[in-house]
Request: fold
Amino acid sequence: MTDWWDYHLIDFLLFSTRVYYRLFVSFNTTFWPVNLALYLGGAMLVFGIMRNRGRRTRMVPAALAGMWAWCGTLFMWQYYQPINWGVPYLLPLFAFETLMLVLFALRRTPLFFAWRGDFSSTAGIALLVLAIPVYPFFSLISGRDILSAELFGSAPDPTIIGTLGMLLLARGTWRWVLLPVPVIWCLITSLTLWAMDQPVAWLPVIAAWLAILGGWMDAKSGVTRKPVATPPAHLHITEPESRDHTGFIK
Reply:
């Protein structure tokens, strides 16, 4: 009889590395117009935020909600679930995060997104660079076809790493409610990739660590309660800032 310590993490996977990445080939070829549109739309959204040096907007959580819904219903449920027995237990996490992002998009005072020059915003930009322009090329580096590339907006890993990047760029009350689900996914996918002996396995763990550290540093410094400096006249702010009776931004 085999003892439990004789098992390795890969023994709990019901699929091979080849089968796993073939899912992305099938997913990308079937839905390539939508996946490409989501990828380019996410890239342009980040570019718009950086070009205007920050804005208070509902577009970011609304766009992320659509991406999480697409990942959850199409890739996770239709493609990943048949080969991974654990996916049904993860789908509620995707549903919860999608709902929370929708609520943040509809809230009275939208989140403010900007690069502030501190640790959190710098880490946020680094994660967005990793998730959008860099992540698709890991398929080529690993010797796979470009059709197996994981794209921000449709594939779970880059989408969730990009979400963490956006959260680190955000300022607004309760935004860290959006943090636990992406962190949980980062830990799960890192274990999966590690079991498949993939060199990118450490990236989601680093993304989760940066997000947690950035959130802790923001909480310690009270960055959420600090007023935002009045922007130059040529910058576009979608809505006026809402302040409480103390004069701080909500």
